[in-house]
Amino acid sequence: MSAKIKKEGWILKALDKVEKIGNGLPHPTTMFIIFTILLILLSWLAEKNGLKVSYEVYDPITKHLTLKETAAVSLLSKNSIRFMYTSIITNFTNFIALGTVFTIIMGVGVADGSGFMSAVLKKIVAITPKRAVTATVIFLGIMSNVASSTGYVMLVPLGAILFMSFGRHPIAGMAATFAGVSGGWSANLLIGTNDPVFAGMSTEAARMIDPSYTVLPTGNWYFMIASTFLITFIGTIVTEKIIEPRLGTYIPDEKIQVNDISKDEKRGMKFALISLVVFFIVVGCLILPTNGILRNPQTGELLRSPFMSGIVFLMSLFFMIPGIFYGIGAGSIKSDKDIIDLMTKSITNLSGFMVLVFFAAQFVVFFNYSNLGIILSVKGAEFLKNTGFVGIPLIIVFIIMTAIINIFIAVDSAKWAIMAPIFVPMFMRIGFSPELTQAAYRVGDSCTNVIAPLMPFFPLIVAFAQKYDKKSGVGTLISLMIPYSIAFLIGWIILLIIWYLFAIPLGIGGTLIYTI
């Protein structure tokens, strides 16, 4: 046996151990209940010992930096108990993943139930080379980030179905797509909604040192483009060399038919195509004119506009409309009752996810209320300051620290609002540009998304996995995604080091070095 095979065997055994330990834990719902109880006790201890931090934070309303002091809040205090008791319902209904999932899943449910998705997949199977499937789903996952979080709901289950259509393990397809959507969150060929947000925060932090400094939304664009291809390549290797061999052969309950579409299906596809053309024309009329209804009424831009704010509903229509017209053309939809039944069925399948989200939402809100997440990030920053590292080692430590913090604080912009005023000025003083600091932060912030149970869509991905393996749990998903997380972290760090050593611009207006 070669050393390579032995090494792979050791990796697979380690992942099996992680899965066994993880799935040996209670049900994910029960785990969130236990975590909440532990959080309550931990917050009480933190407040009792006077745990607090002081830091500067960017205020998006005033657009200035303000000094804040944050202390740990005991969840056993009278006010906290009142808060927990009165917020339980809103914690659930306001959970970010809930509305997104419900809205998109209705559209996807119609497209799937009418047979439209099956027909599309047959065509994809017919024209896509088998060797390109993995790279395709990862790449599409990365690109879906332009449309905010829709990739989690829309693409992850489709990746599983597509893999199964090729006779491959659906959970491998799910993992690969999830790796692209979540692990590749900071990679893209396009400028997305997060870029102006990050740039604004970085600008305010940079002006603590240089009042005239401005970070452009395009400041990391070149690096993001290169990262897109890097993450696609790494994700493909991990999927085909580690994930699929470990999962083995999948035997579906019903064999997926990949024959060419029938006469009725072709008629349905024509109806669907016509409806999509009309759909795009209508959307184009709403966003293409400079005074388009869905553009920002003040600035006329698209990135921060009603169009982007309502993109989730638009994506639902993107599936629902062709699904309805396909069903009419193919004969699978004969009345409005059929459409409503398909929507109802799609929501019914989310019952387990809803129970899990109810308790997960409580933990996330209570964790934020306790201020322990903020304290963790500020303490981590203080630790980094005290390490004494400079140059490339400092960048590497910063990325790793961000990756660790990301497991506990899932919202990227919230973390950067806290961390930018600390690290951007600190790094500027030693010659690192704000754009470089921002790029390093985004690398660390993306890599551990796929193994962060507090990430809002993590419970949904667990539910997707359970569709193909009833025994799947948090341990299964984490063990599946750890190879992606580690590989992305290593590969991305190497890319950033190369970028730094060869002094390649990070983007339009994105330099590497800052000279005081």
From TrEMBL:
Keywords: Membrane, Transmembrane, Transmembrane helix. InterPro entries: AbgT. One of its GO terms (molecular function) is secondary active p-aminobenzoyl-glutamate transmembrane transporter activity. The keyword Transmembrane helix applies. GO terms for biological process: p-aminobenzoyl-glutamate transmembrane transport. Coiled coil: none annotated. It comes from the Bacteria. The chain crosses the membrane at residues 29-46, 88-111, 131-164, 171-191, 221-239, 271-294, 306-329, 350-369, 389-409, 416-434, 446-465, 477-502. This is AbgT family transporter.
